[in-house]
Specification:
The complex is a heterodimer of chains A (about 270) and B (about 300).
Chain A (H helix, E strand, L loop, with lengths): L9 H24 L16 H7 L2 H34 L6 H9 L6 H14 L6 H26 L3 H8 L4 H30 L2 H6 L7 H10 L4 H28 L10
Helix pairs in contact in A: 2-11, 3-6, 3-8, 3-10, 6-8, 7-8, 8-11
Chain B lengths: L2 H12 L1 H22 L2 E2 L6 E2 L7 H11 L3 H8 L1 H33 L3 H16 L2 H12 L4 H8 L13 H26 L3 H8 L4 H12 L1 H16 L3 H6 L7 H11 L3 H30 L4
Antiparallel strand pairs in B: 1-2
Helix pairs in contact in B: 2-15, 4-5, 4-15, 5-9, 5-12, 6-9, 7-9, 9-12, 10-11, 12-15, 14-15
Classes of the chains: A mainly alpha (about 270), B mainly alpha (about 300).
């Protein structure tokens, strides 16, 4: 019996509980304070929606939020398309010329410091004489987030039972149809998870967006960041809570969708 | 000679578009960083010379080549500011990675020992904060750490400190922020190796008379080393170039290299020096990056 040596000790439970509390408490406190009526961030003045009201009257913030949402939606969609294709190439392409370079280019942006990616993309855009704004930020975010999509989808593809594809081909499907009819439905949860991840990463990024955006088209994180540098403002608490709520909705919807689509009951690992 | 081989051809075709995309938007930009790091600063738009114009052909290229200078790199080596910020980045990254290991390991171990159905729940709980905005989570800490913030209030109420403590703009705040942000990156690879581990090895160790402590150090820990390596690299590499966390939480008297680069670029508008700093940072990160690439490939492609 495994239970004799592999058991949960009090130490295990305590460290796990403390770890989770450490991860969640700051967020919970932030959400609570966003409903604080007082202008002083640290004094509790009763529940109020005042700061949400303030945000919805703040044109500059709203514009930044709209810009961020558009960038996130477009770049996540492009990244999902490109990332899935890349994952298929890596997981099913066997050996091909330039494979090592390809996987190196796809894995390294996951860890390369953002200041480097941001600077290098900006220099490219300047050299190409591209007007900086929505599209440059979108391209930059697509480049970064497609790598995350590739990892998520590739790990699903490698764990997939390949005999299903092979059976479809034995029964007369050509490879493209076998992929569309058999493989694609099976990896759909991972693709959905990849899109979500790309969307939230784009919605979160300050550094790369700061480098690649142009005057007059700041994203929400850039605005939040410049406000935060000046100190804590109650309105920022409200905006942050709204972003958290939006991300929570995206996660819930997508995990629900992935449960529906994976009839085998295998849920997609979010990362 | 099977379906597998036939399937591989269109799969390779699928890779063409993302391949071209990454070459254009990931590889080529590094060429520009390298080139501009060898250019001279100028008060112009864009602020550097020589400006390289493809339309002028090969001659312009060789002419530009002769104007390249290593001045920016000489500056990097001769000016204390840069060397100090490199050293600080390394110290911060090593220290944070060690703290992350010390905190992350017990948590990952606790997760791996949970009953099967709770493991999924625990994993989701660890991942969800990673999904919520990183900037927001740092901001949440500023809320707590500021002069009349929650932490000082609690400490004062409990009479642990006589007067409010300055937390913001200190190294402790920065380390706290880094550990907080990168904890999921440390826990997940550790948990992945610990959960995969064959527990019958522990029973064998037990049968052979090892105490639980000995079994941990002789069996569990050595077997978890790939996870330790993956987690450490996944944290170390981005922390070296971290910008937002030190900028918001640490003091301004000593900068990390990411901050120096940002300063040169946005404040001093010195693109060539910023590019030279980026090249130097990248060179520093090449060995850990190669190691990480190998681990990642082994994990995703099953080590074949």
């Amino acid at each position: 019996m495994a239970s004799r040596v592999v058991r949960i000790t009090r130490f295990n439970m305590t460290s796990l509980a403390l770890g989770l509390a450490f991860l969640y408490l700051p967020i919970v406190i932030l959400v609570i304070y966003s409903f604080n009526a007082s202008r002083l961030v640290t004094v509790w003045g009763g529940w109020s929606l005042r700061w949400y009201h303030e945000f919805f009257n703040d044109r500059a913030m709203l514009e930044a939020a709209w810009m961020s949402l558009r960038v996130a939606a477009v770049s996540a969609t492009l990244a999902t398309l490109l990332g899935t294709l890349a994952a298929v190439g890596l997981a099913r392409g066997e050996r091909f010329r330039g494979r090592a370079l390809f996987s190196g280019m796809l894995y390294s942006p996951l860890v390369i410091p953002e200041v480097i990616s941001g600077l290098s993309l900006l220099l490219l855009f300047v050299a190409l004489n591209a007007e900086r704004g929505f599209w440059t930020v979108t391209i930059a975010h697509t480049t970064l987030t497609m790598c995350f999509v590739t990892v998520v989808v590739q790990s699903r593809l490698t764990s997939l039972d390949r005999s299903l594809e092979e059976a479809a081909m034995d029964l007369g499907c050509d490879p493209v149809r076998a992929f569309l009819l058999v493989t694609l439905p099976l990896i759909l949860p991972a693709i959905a998870a990849g899109w979500m991840l790309a969307f939230t990463l784009s919605l979160d990024d300050v550094v790369i967006a700061s480098f690649t955006t142009g005057p007059g088209s700041a994203t929400l994180p850039i605005r939040i960041y410049s406000e935060v540098r000046l100190g804590v403002k109650p309105e920022i608490n409200a905006i942050c809570t709204l972003v958290i709520a939006l991300i929570a909705v995206v996660i819930v919807v997508a995990s629900f969708a992935s449960k529906l689509s994976s009839s085998q009951g295998e849920s997609a690992a979010p990362l | 000679m099977s379906a597998r081989r036939i399937f591989a051809r269109p799969a390779r075709f699928a890779a063409i578009a993302p391949y071209l995309w990454m070459v254009l938007f990931f590889l080529v930009p590094f060429g520009f960083v390298l080139k501009i790091s060898l250019s001279q600063t100028a008060i112009a738009q864009p602020p550097y010379t020589p400006v390289f114009d493809l339309a002028e052909g090969w001659q312009a290229f060789t002419a530009a080549l002769s104007q390249l200078s290593f001045e920016n790199f000489k500056l990097l080596i001769s000016d204390n500011l840069y060397i100090l910020s490199y050293l600080r980045s390394l110290v911060v990254a090593v220290t944070s990675t060690l703290i992350l290991l010390l905190i992350g390991y017990p948590i990952a171990y606790g997760m791996a020992r949970l009953p099967q159905r709770w493991q999924g729940v625990a994993m989701t709980l660890v991942i969800v904060p990673f999904w919520t905005s990183f900037l927001i989570r740092i901001y949440a800490w500023i809320n707590i750490l500021q002069h009349d913030g929650l932490l000082n209030k609690i400490l004062l109420t409990l009479h642990i400190v006589p007067a409010p403590v300055v937390w913001l703009s200190t190294d402790s705040a920065m380390y706290l922020g880094i550990v907080y942000s990168y904890l999921p990156f440390m826990i997940l690879p550790l948990y992945a190796t610990l959960a995969k581990m064959d527990t019958s090895l522990l029973e064998a160790a037990n049968d052979l008379g090892a105490s639980p402590r000995e079994a941990f150090w002789l069996v569990t820990f050595p077997l978890s080393l790939p996870g330790v390596g993956a987690g450490a690299l996944l944290c170390f590499i981005p922390i070296v170039g971290e910008f937002v966390i030190p900028d918001l939480l640490a003091g301004s008297d000593s900068l990390m290299i990411g901050q120096t680069l940002w300063l040169e670029f946005f404040t001093n508008k010195d693109w060539p020096v910023a590019s030279a700093a980026a090249v130097a940072l990248l060179v520093l990160l090449v060995p850990p990056l190669l190691l990480y690439d190998r681990l990642q490939r082994r994990q995703l492609e099953g080590g074949r």
